[in-house]
Design a protein that fits this description.
Low-confidence stretches: 98-114, 172-179, 548-558, 702-721, 779-819, 1031-1117, 1139-1143, 1215-1232, 1258-1283, 1295-1333, 1335-1374, 1592-1599, ...
Distance between the termini: 115 Å
Number of strands: 48
Number of helices: 64
Strand order of the largest sheet: 25-24-23-22-28-27-26
Largest sheet: 7 strands, antiparallel
Radius of gyration: 52 Å
Helix content: 25-40%
Oligomer: single chain
């Protein structure tokens, strides 16, 4: 029972206290005067009566009523009903106040007199109950009595009101009906009567229609936002101009939050004076009158709901977590069906007649029912996650949040996480947790209707039915009685309201009278018998457990049964000690353990192997178990929602291994690296779940209950079959009052000591898992959030610093002690915090708590001591699972910088090694990485046990490293994310490595630093090529004695004398950094000099080379001469060096020594070819016009046309315009620029004059024009060639009218056009076939496509009329120029072309160095992707296209072919692009290679590279970023691009090159490897300065170290034919013209291939060493048919060329091994090969060519026609046979076809008529080719070789021809034909039909013929 009203007050306007126009209220009277004991009088009521402030008004307002809510000091809410009416004040009252303070004060007091003013007065009723309507009626009644003057004393009414007592709850129960009825019906004694509807169950909120009202005002979505905001603790502010509506809205919001209760600030009506409350930091729900709207604008984190406008404003900084889907959607649907039932049928053609929404009151309950249904879904099964940790004296209950979220699979859900963490839910647990209490509608719903809700949730109609049922219950609860007839409420009469102005003010009441009433009622209550309302307590049902619900939702891993099987089997194998089986299953198990089911299965399986809390394993078992545990824990989140860590916790302290005498290592020391162990929440829930099971055991009388294994309670659920802990508790609570005091005390004490013992147990457990095995390393605590308490944080900082110190190399022992104690401290602190928290919550006594605090440091210290012993012992253990580290073989002179670091090699984007393309996965592999002075080497074995015995090697030269980035890697076999590195190399290699956990992180850092130091040495002398063999240990600085004194002095003197001779020059000194430890050879001699750069020239004609070099150094002069490639110049007839450097004047060119001191051009060689007529002085002047002073010099001359090829840099900008000025333009004063340009013209003219064609014609008009193909002045070859040049030029220059195939120009974005022009091909009919050949020799199919007229037509179509105007493109002029200058388009702008000059400029777009750099980066990513991707935009072809590498090759080749054409037609060409050292070099070298067969031999190619690339100063060091200085410029492989072009040409003309493709790959690898000095510096000048240039000759002290790549290649070539191209068979003076279209280019396999078995094969010594181990004797040819001697060859693992060598290599190898067996001295392969070739040459002279494939390969005098259509031979064969069978009788017109693989073995060519090879022989007549007679021949049938050979006579050694039996289709009797031998019977003839033709034979007689046929037939059938 409760009082209806606690206090009644009359509050009025306070006339005495008005402050500057703001009035105040004052309590005039209050009843009762004294506070009730059970509810104190709330303060500040006068503020709430007038929330907008007390004011006087000029007109009377209607009376108003609203209910405010006040919260008292005990946080209880009081309803405060205010009834306000207005009373007039007469003047006398006002006069009392000082006039200045009256609001309406005016100048004239008269006005004040006359105006009447009204003041508010409030009747206030304060109650703890919430009956708005009853309060409205009661206060209205008091007002009516006063106004209408009813004959009832007000004191009586108020006294009755204050003494009225009503029941709090309980519906109508039959027995008490009468009495209850009387209690519920109240009257205040003024003829009134009302019935109070007390709710049946007061735990449900009463909402009237406020919820429905709220939804009407704001709408569904807005209210849901507010609902979620309130639950997730945001600040909510309601605005409205109605106070009652504010109260209703706030109450409505609380009503839908049921069963959660709002526990923060709740003020439905906030008075204006208290607005600053809104800036409180805590969450709130507050209502404010719209009058104050402007003052709420600056609130940044408050959600504002405007009830009048229907809007909800959410500030930007506030994020509201919404309900999880699909619940949110279903809730919205249900709400809209309640609020707007017409929505569903809005589209129906025949809508039902009545679909009105329910009445407001009913609708209100329906909405609340939807929210009840929602909470039942959110919280279903919550009781299974309650831990009861104390039952007596009262239950203490905790909620296991992680388990709840895990089982609901909602761990990621933001909303639920926040709700469960919130205060409201904490209240919910403490209120609804106890197992024995009264239950309500929600308990029933969660326990009994979960199943129904889940089945219906998808069907809105069924949901609505359920909602309506719930709504009915809610409505019944609020309105338990039918409408009552006796309801009678008095209202004030109309007239009393109207003539209000003659009203009397509310009278003062007689407090004594009222107090009497109150005392009287109190006395009556004391005497009355107490009303005992039996409280219905019962056991709260738990509902279905959660586990089932989720499983039925199907969130179980598919295929899990198989996975669980794998896990079980593996564990069984481990415990049965079948380690090999376990090892094979391991990867599958680790994969399976990603799934939850498998992890739970693992914990259960392991549990079965624990006996008496202990399981001792051997090392390997222990290792596997730990790995599985780690893998299981790795995917656990830190809250452990699936209880996996909880299940493993008892196991990690059970599994152990013996390390030594009395030392045992437990599994926990190996599974500490997981976040979960540092999470306080995890430990608490674990502790509580254990306590619960112990307390349950305490009260279970039955025996087996006592022994029950505690793991069943792990997830807090207890076990379904048995009595759960909550059930036990509720039973105990029921019995509690019946127990005696002693019994009660005993039980409390028992429980308390249970909790205490568990706390000790957990302190131990926590120290196990938090103290690292090596206490000097505090990885775990540092990385986790253990330091989130202030006191801890400080020591963490020092802790981590000390930690890193302790792990580095040079630690003093002082740190380690400090460190270990620090770990101990932080662990002690962590455990203390835990113990404080759980013990306070579970009511452990203070003495016990203190005991714990003293105990914990001892526990930790003890544990540290045992750990130290374990750590010491475990270090001695040999690690088991890690494979032995394999040592790499090193080169002579290569030394390790950092020894093995254990790493894993991770697969990258190349799929071959990962097993995706078939075969076992070779990667990932585990092994070690080695850093040497030369390479970075990984060597290890694959982790896949099936290929565990293979060795995987991947390496690249450290100098080729282009990019290094850190990555983090999760290894499939391991638990942790490892730090790793991704290293990319320009030799197209990528290493992704992950450091093993045994590698300290700072060691990895040291590794990176060393790598960088080696990659970018300070000076080029730090590179491997210089330091090889001289390196001491790393830090030692070494000074070696000068090796070659004379060279040093030469270089010294060269520089010195250069200084002397530079008379009046400015000498700029560059600062030179002293050598660091990398420059291990002494640099002293050069350090005395500075580098010299010359900025102005002097006349040096007086100096000759011999005069500047002292006589002691003269002998090295020959080196200079040789090095300057004079041999080549002399071969080309470009000048000789005779004595005293004089020369015969009639030579057009001379060798100039003007640059011998490198003063004219630093980057040119010392000796240069210039025109005879140009003096050195001119050169000094000319060179300034060109960039880098690289003026034009001759580098090659065409021996036939005598045209020359020149190279230079582009012009300086200032020189361009002057250069093109017309020579006859009159200039008044020749300026300096003009004179230079004149000099230049003279220079060019001198070059032109040197050409014989110029001097012959002495004019230009006789040369045929390019375009006029009808001028028949030239022979047919010219006719066919000219349009080609025109077309080529057009393509190269990219003129406007090109139509086809455009491609974008990378970085610059300009367009260069390519025309797909089919190159014209000369037919055999042409009288004078052109020299040279076009395209590839890939087969004859192409020939027919070429029509000789196509080119002419194309050229003709595009050529203008001969008399065309000046707008035509330059190359279409009528006559041919003598000199073409290939220049850069960008540079040549503004130059006017003069039509009378004899040279012509061909502007082309040239690829920028940056473009090459970027293109190469993309090419590397395409060929060696770092990760595999399924994105079609990232496919290999797409990436290759994006890289534009092929387009760049195309452009270079295109220009080169154009230049070749021009030179071949007799025009000279000057290539003048960029700085003259990148593209220029590429073009010039390619032109020479294509034009001059000499450069296609070993010597020639070497000379070409030395001359054009090395001497002419291609900047190898700069472009290769070889030193620290050039690091920023990045890696630009210009030389590689050149080699790729050579490779493309090699593919198209395989018979023209003496060297093989491997040779090119070898150079491509070593030009970046820095193993040789050849490609190190940027120019000859730098090489001389370092004394590198000539040392190769004199220096032989370390013979095993080759300093020049050429020497190395020569040496290697002598030993093995690896670089030799067997198809080499050159034609004289052949000019090659390759196809250059992108479609004709192939991706170089150098970019793609790799050999994991041995690493790159380009360091031959390493390869040789490995081979010696694995060398086997080669197979002897077996005559009895093929045996299966199969060997698997893996792509990307085996070296294909070794596994399947080409036939000739194989034969040479066989020969060598045979010689070795016979003990002969084996002769050089080259001699053998040359012998064979010479025998072949003689054979070809015979009548019919034998079909040895080698004859095709070797004979150099096959007809041109035959060769240009020859067969393209791959450099490989099958086994030892070669893929060719040529028809011996092929006529000159037929094309040889690559035949089927023949089984005949190609023997070495020394044949004799050995009998063993002759199965059957004899004389047969054979019909010759067409019109040839029959001839007798000696035929030999050879079964072994499977062929029919024939000879002139029996004695003949030389075979005349061979018929391959493999090609024979049939043998049939024949008929005699014309010219057959006479007198022979017809049956003697037979025919042999092959795939190519039919042979006619004739034997001596029919018998003989039959024999032959049978023999051949038997051979065929045997095959």
């Amino acid at each position: 029972m409760a009082r209806l009203a606690d206090y009644f007050l009359v509050v009025g306007y306070d006339l005495d206290k008005r402050v500057e126009g703001e009035g105040q209220g004052r309590i005039l009277q209050r009843f009762p005067e004294k506070d009730w004991e059970d509810s104190p009088f709330p303060q500040g009521i006068e503020l709430f009566c007038q929330p907008s402030g007390w004011q006087l008004v000029p007109e009377r307002q209607p009376a108003s009523f609203f209910v405010a809510v006040l919260t008292d000091i005990n946080s209880e809410r009081h309803s405060c009903a205010c009834f306000t009416f207005w009373e007039g004040l007469d003047n006398s009252q006002l006069q009392k106040a000082k006039p200045s303070e009256v609001d309406e004060v005016d100048e004239e007091p008269a006005v004040v007199q006359s105006a009447q003013v009204f003041a508010p007065k409030s009747l206030v009723l304060v109650s703890r109950l919430d009956y708005t309507e009853v309060f409205r009626n009661c206060l209205g009644l008091i007002y009516t009595v006063h106004v209408d003057g009813l004959p009832v004393p007000l004191e009586t009414v108020i006294g009755n009101l204050l003494t009225c007592v009503i029941p709090i709850a309980g519906g109508s129960q039959p027995g008490q009906e009468e009495r209850e009825e009387s209690l519920r019906t109240i009257t205040l004694g003024a003829g009134d009567r009302q019935v109070i509807q007390t709710p049946i169950d007061d735990s449900l909120p009463i909402s009237g229609s406020s919820v429905a009202q709220l939804f009407r005002q704001l709408g569904i979505v807005n209210v849901l936002y507010l609902f979620c905001a309130a639950l997730t603790e945001h600040k909510i502010l309601f605005l409205s101009s109605s106070y009652q509506r504010l109260t209703d809205a706030c109450r409505g919001l609380l009503a839908i939050m049921f069963p959660l209760k709002y526990s923060f600030t709740f003020v439905p009506i906030l008075p204006g004076k208290l607005l600053e409350v809104l800036s409180t930091p805590t969450p709130f729900i507050i209502g404010v009158n719209s009058f104050f709207r402007s003052e709420t604008q600056e609130l940044l984190d408050v959600i504002i709901a405007d009830l009048d406008g229907g809007t909800v404003t959410i500030p930007e900084c506030v994020h509201i977590s919404l309900l999880p889907e699909p619940i949110l959607q279903q809730t919205q649907t249900a709400l809209s069906m309640v609020l707007d039932p017409e929505l569903e049928i809005a589209d129906h053609a025949f809508p039902p007649l009545s679909t009105q929404p329910s009445a407001l009151k009913i609708q209100d309950k329906e909405i609340r029912a939807v929210f009840l249904w929602l909470f039942a879904r959110l919280f279903q099964g919550y009781r299974w996650c309650l831990h009861i940790i104390r039952i007596h004296p009262e239950p203490v209950i905790r909620f296991h949040k992680a388990a709840f979220l895990g089982q609901r699979a909602l761990t990621e859900d933001d909303f639920l996480m926040k709700v469960l963490d919130g205060m409201a839910f904490a209240g919910f647990v403490s209120e609804r947790g106890p197992p024995y209490r009264a239950t309500d509608l929600f308990d029933d719903l969660v326990a009994n209707h979960v199943e129904r809700i889940r089945q219906e949730e998808a069907c809105p109609q069924k949901v609505m039915n359920h909602v309506k049922e719930l709504a009915e219950q809610l409505f019944k609860n609020e309105n338990p009685y039918p409408a009552v007839a006796m309801h009678k409420v008095t209202r004030p009469s109309e007239n009393s309201q109207n003539n209000a102005h003659n009203q009397k003010p509310f009278p003062g009441l007689d407090d004594v009278a009222v107090q009497l009433f109150i005392d009287h009622a109190a006395a009556k209550l004391k005497t009355a018998p107490p009303v005992v309302k039996a409280e219905l307590k019962s056991m709260v049902p738990s509902g279905p457990p959660l586990g089932d619900t989720v499983d039925r939702n199907g969130n179980v891993m598919a295929n899990s049964a198989r996975r669980l099987e794998v896990v079980r089997n593996c564990i069984t194998y481990i415990f049965e000690n079948k380690m090999l089986e376990a090892k094979k299953l391991m990867p599958a198990v680790l994969r399976a353990l990603k799934g939850r089911a498998a992890r739970i299965c693992l914990t259960q399986e392991l549990n079965q192997h624990v006996l008496q809390n202990r399981a001792v394993l051997d090392d390997q078992q222990f290792d596997y178990i730990v790995r599985m545990m780690n893998c299981t824990l790795q995917d656990c989140s830190h809250i452990d929602e699936h209880g996996i860590a909880a299940a493993l916790l008892p196991l990690v302290t059970a599994f152990c291994r013996k390390l030594g005498a009395g030392i045992t290592q437990f599994a926990y020391s190996c599974v500490q690296e997981h976040m979960v162990w540092t999470t306080m929440q995890f430990w608490e829930s674990m502790f509580y779940s254990d306590v619960q099971s112990h307390i349950r055991a305490l009260y279970l009388e039955t025996e087996e209950g006592g022994q029950q294994n505690n793991t069943e309670q792990q997830d807090g659920s207890g076990s379904g079959r048995e009595i759960s802990a909550l059930d036990l508790a509720s039973e105990q609570n029921r019995l509690w009052p019946t127990l005696s005091k002693e019994m009660q005390a005993e039980r409390v004490q028992k429980e308390e000591s249970t909790v205490f013992s568990q706390a000790i147990h957990y302190a131990n457990r926590m120290s196990y898992l938090l103290l690292p095995l090596d206490t000097s390393k505090n990885r775990l605590l540092r990385s986790s959030g253990l330091g989130d308490v202030e006191s801890v944080s400080n020591s963490y900082v020092t802790n981590s610093i000390a930690g890193s110190m302790a792990e580095s190399y040079d630690t003093e022992s002082g740190f380690e002690d400090a460190e270990s104690s620090d770990v101990a401290n932080s662990v002690v602190r962590f455990i203390n915090r835990f113990v404080d928290k759980v013990c306070n919550e579970s009511g452990v006594t203070n003495e016990h708590l203190k005991a714990l605090h003293t105990m914990i440091p001892d526990i930790v210290q003890m544990h540290i001591e045992t750990l130290d012993a374990v750590h010491r012992e475990s270090k001695r253990l040999p690690p088991i699972q890690k494979p032995k580290l394999l040592r790499p073989t090193l080169l002579p002179g290569e030394e390790l910088v950092m020894d093995a670091m254990r790493v894993h090699l991770i697969p990258d984007g190349r799929e071959e090694a990962t097993g995706l393309m078939g075969g076992p996965p070779l990667l990932p592999a585990e092994g070690a990485i080695f850093l040497t002075t030369y390479r970075l080497i990984f060597k290890g074995t694959p982790t896949d046990p099936l290929v565990g015995e293979q060795v995987v090697t991947r390496s690249f030269p450290i100098a080729s490293l282009t990019k290094e980035k850190r990555i983090s890697v999760t290894l499939p076999m391991d638990q942790f994310v490892q730090e790793g590195l991704q290293l990319r190399s320009s030799t197209f290699q990528l290493m992704k490595i992950a450091f093993d956990e045994e590698v300290a992180s700072d060691l990895a850092e040291v590794f990176r630093k060393h790598m960088h130091k080696l990659r970018y040495p300070q000076h080029v002398q730090g590179t491997f090529a210089f330091t090889v063999g001289q390196c001491g240990k790393l830090v030692v600085e070494h000074k070696t004695k000068d090796k070659n004194q004379s060279l040093r002095t030469l270089s010294k003197n060269l520089v010195k004398s250069a200084k002397k001779t530079i008379g009046r020059q400015y000498v700029t000194r560059k600062k030179y950094s002293p050598p660091t430890w990398e420059n291990r050879s002494s640099l002293q001699s050069e350090l005395d000099e500075d580098e010299i750069s010359v900025s102005e020239e002097v006349d040096q004609s007086s100096l000759t080379l011999s005069s500047t070099i002292r006589s002691s150094d003269r002998q090295t002069m020959s080196n200079v001469v040789e090095r300057a490639c004079c041999r080549d110049y002399q071969r080309l007839g470009l000048g000789t060096l005779s004595n005293s450097l004089t020369r015969s004047k009639n030579e057009p060119f001379r060798i100039s020594t003007v640059n011998r001191m490198y003063t004219v051009c630093r980057s040119y060689p010392g000796l240069l070819i210039v025109p005879q007529s140009i003096p050195d002085t001119t050169i000094h002047r000319i060179c300034r016009c060109y960039r880098q002073n690289r003026f034009p010099v001759v580098c090659w001359r065409n021996s036939r046309t005598k045209a020359v090829l020149l190279r230079s840099a582009g012009l300086h900008a200032k020189g361009v315009v002057g250069f093109f000025k017309s020579p006859n333009a009159p200039t008044a004063v020749p300026s300096q620029a003009d004179s230079t340009s004149l000099e230049q013209e003279k220079y060019l003219q001198a070059i032109i004059s040197s050409m014989p064609s110029y001097s012959e014609n002495s004019g230009r008009n006789t040369l045929s024009g390019f375009t006029s193909t009808h001028m028949s002045t030239s022979d047919s070859s010219d006719k066919l060639r000219q349009p080609k040049i025109g077309a080529l030029m057009k393509q190269v220059m990219g003129t406007k009218e090109d139509v086809p195939g455009t491609f974008s120009r990378g970085a610059l974005g300009q367009r260069a056009k390519v025309i797909s022009l089919s190159q014209p091909k000369v037919s055999g009919k042409a009288r004078n076939p052109p020299r040279g050949k076009w395209g590839s020799i890939r087969g004859s199919g192409r020939l027919s496509a070429y029509n000789p007229d196509v080119g002419t037509r194309l050229a003709g179509k595009e050529s203008p009329q001969p008399n065309g105007g000046p707008s035509e493109a330059l190359f279409l002029r009528q006559q041919k120029a003598y000199l073409y200058i290939i220049g850069d388009k960008a540079q040549l702008k503004g130059g006017k072309q003069d039509s009378f000059q004899q040279w012509e400029v061909v502007p082309i777009e040239v690829c920028d160095v940056r473009q090459v750099k970027n293109s190469f980066k993309k090419l590397m990513k395409a060929c060696v992707p770092s990760s595999s991707t399924s994105d079609p935009n990232m496919s290999f072809q797409r990436c290759l296209e994006d890289s534009e590498w092929m387009a760049l090759l195309h452009r270079v080749l295109q220009v080169s072919v154009l230049v070749v054409e021009l030179l071949d037609t007799g025009s000279s060409v000057m290539v003048s692009l960029e700085d003259g050292w990148d593209v220029t070099t590429q073009v010039v070298s390619l032109v020479q290679l294509l034009s001059d067969p000499y450069y296609r031999t070993f010597d020639g190619f070497r000379l070409l590279v030395e001359k054009e690339w090395l001497s002419f100063g291609h900047r190898f060091s700069h472009r290769g970023a070889q030193t620290l200085g050039s690091q920023s410029s990045g890696f630009t492989p210009v030389f590689l691009q050149f080699l790729d072009c050579v490779h493309q040409i090699h593919l198209q003309f395989p018979m023209e090159f003496e060297f093989s493709q491997y040779y090119l790959k070898f150079l491509a690898y070593h030009y970046v490897s820095n193993r040789f000095r050849t490609f190190l510096l940027d120019s000859d000048y730098e090489r001389i300065e370092l004394g590198v240039l000539y040392e190769e000759k004199g220096d032989r002290k370390t013979p095993q170290v080759c300093k020049s790549v050429w020497d190395y290649i020569d040496r290697l070539n002598k030993k093995t034919p690896i670089f030799y191209n067997y198809m080499f068979s050159p034609e004289d003076e052949e000019v090659l013209r390759p196809y250059t279209f992108i479609s004709n280019l192939k991706v170089w396999d150098f970019y793609m291939e790799e050999t994991l078995s041995e690493g790159p094969s380009y360091d031959w010594e390493l390869r040789g060493r490995q081979e010696r181990v694995a060398e086997e004797t080669p197979e002897k040819p077996d005559t009895s048919g093929p045996k299966s001697q199969r060997r698997i060859v893996w792509p990307c693992y085996d070296s294909l060329s070794k596994a399947v060598p080409d036939a000739i290599t194989k034969l040479l190898q066989d020969l060598q091994s045979l010689e070795a067996e016979l003990g002969q001295t084996s002769e050089k392969w080259k001699d053998t090969w040359d012998k064979i070739k010479t025998t072949q040459r003689t054979e070809t002279k015979l009548e019919s060519k034998p079909s040895f494939s080698s004859s095709l390969l070797m004979s150099s005098n096959l007809s041109h026609q035959r060769r240009s259509q020859g067969v393209y031979l791959q450099e490989s064969g099958v086994g030892s046979s070669i893929n060719l069978a040529l028809d011996c009788e092929a006529s000159a017109t037929s094309t040889p076809v690559a035949g089927r693989t023949s089984t005949s073995t190609l023997y070495s060519q020394f044949q004799s008529t050995e009998s063993e090879n002759r199965s059957f022989e004899g004389i047969l007549f054979k019909k010759g080719a067409l019109l040839k007679p029959w001839k007798p021949r000696w035929f030999v049938l050879d079964k072994t070789k499977h062929q029919l050979r024939y000879y002139e006579t029996r004695q003949d050694k030389e075979c005349k021809g061979v018929i391959e039996l493999a090609d024979v289709e049939s043998v049939i009797p024949g008929t005699p034909t014309m010219g057959a031998p006479k007198n022979i019977e017809e049956k003697a003839f037979f025919d042999l039909k092959t795939t190519k033709r039919v042979y006619n034979f004739c034997a001596q007689d029919s018998l003989n013929a039959q024999l032959w046929m049978d023999s051949v037939q038997s051979c065929l059938s045997d095959a």
